[in-house]
Specification:
The chain is α/β, with parallel strands linked by helices. The protein has helices spanning 15-26, 76-85, 92-110; strands spanning 10-14, 31-35, 42-44, 46-49, 58-60, 117-122, 125-134. The strands form two sheets. It has a four-stranded mixed β-sheet with strand order 3-1-7-6. It has a three-stranded antiparallel β-sheet with strand order 4-2-5, covered by helices on one side.
């Protein structure tokens, strides 16, 4: 069946989409990786900001696509704590620069910590699929 997600064996995602969706979701706007019917064995999950009138599709929280050992996203508070613990002079400018560097470092580090599989919720129950990562430029074609 074209609308049966249990036919999916693997999902392809770009690393950049996972990272961007995760960061965007932290800002309070529901951002997901969306897989739309018709479903096939190999599907592509694409970056999507959830809308009220979304058609039926699978919406994956980007946090589910990060491996358990993925580094934590740096918060402004954790950056401030680190700055103050370093006995350096705290300034707003130093905090901004340090936090920007921490986020950039997280973006690089998390790329190596994507999940290799994810479980989809279906009407038939949980359905586990492989996760395949595509390059960071998104130029590869959909695996469908």
């Amino acid at each position: 069946m074209e609308d049966d997600p249990t036919v999916i064996r693997s999902l392809a995602v770009t690393v950049d989409d996972v990272v961007a969706a995760y960061e965007h979701s932290r800002g309070g706007r529901p951002t997901v990786l969306r897989v739309t019917p018709p479903y096939h064995a190999r599907m592509r999950a694409r970056l999507h900001v959830e809308q009220r009138a979304d058609p039926p599709a699978i919406h994956l929280d980007p946090a589910r696509l990060l491996a358990a050992d993925a580094p934590d996203y740096p918060t402004p508070e954790s950056t401030e704590d680190r700055l103050r613990a370093d006995d350096g002079e705290y300034t707003t400018e130093a905090h901004y620069e340090a936090h920007t560097e921490a986020v950039d470092a997280w973006r690089e580090a998390v790329r190596g910590h994507l999940a290799t599989a994810v479980t989809l919720s279906t009407s038939e129950g949980p359905h586990r699929v492989e996760v395949k990562t595509l390059g960071t430029d998104g130029s590869r074609r959909s695996p469908r």
